[in-house]
Amino acid sequence: MKKLVIIGFDGTIADTAPGILYCMNTTALSMGYTPVAHDALYGVIGVSAEQGFMKLYGMKEDEIEYAMNQYSKLYSIKGEEMILIYDGIDDSLRKLKENGFKLAIVTQKNERFINNMLGVYRYIGDLFDTVCATNVEREMEKSDMLRKVCDDLEIATSDAIFIGDSYVDAIAANEVGMDFAAALYGWGFRSKEDAQQYNCRVYLDSAREIAKKLPLID
Length: 218
Known about the structure:
CATH superfamily of the largest domain: HAD superfamily/HAD-like
Order of helices and strands: EEHHHEHEHHEHEHEHEH
Strand content: 15-25%
């Protein structure tokens, strides 16, 4: 049995797409760019907001700092309110804890935002042993975040599994020799076939399946 379950936040614990899209589109529109539809997010799932602005709207690098400042201000007001915790995620996480698993979050969301959200939803936030997010002083690839969490908890990457909803998550897990569970209920992978090319250990059709399937993985 694994010792550590690492899970993403966006598209895995919570549906944050509406807030992210609203804040990115509002920021882009204020800078003279055309808003994009929800489906456009599939092209930037799992990447940083900075990369998202460049890919979605074609922004230049010298515009990103301004865009991120505007986005951060707006997200702290509106984006944090526009999230939906996936049904059954709290029950699954609680059962994993009861079965002796360590729990961690790895996300490229700004640590101020994630800490605020976990503070609001403390019935979920209090279940985690550690959280690794981004900040202005530390730029880390997702694979580096996975290694950091394992180092902090003194658990080998082979004894951990990462639950994510995007190819970025899957690639990061593969890079560090960690098993990967594909969250098909999120907004990254559009189908099981979409995820199968990334050497997934298990496929999750709902958040409730986490507690049923992960304890069976050795």
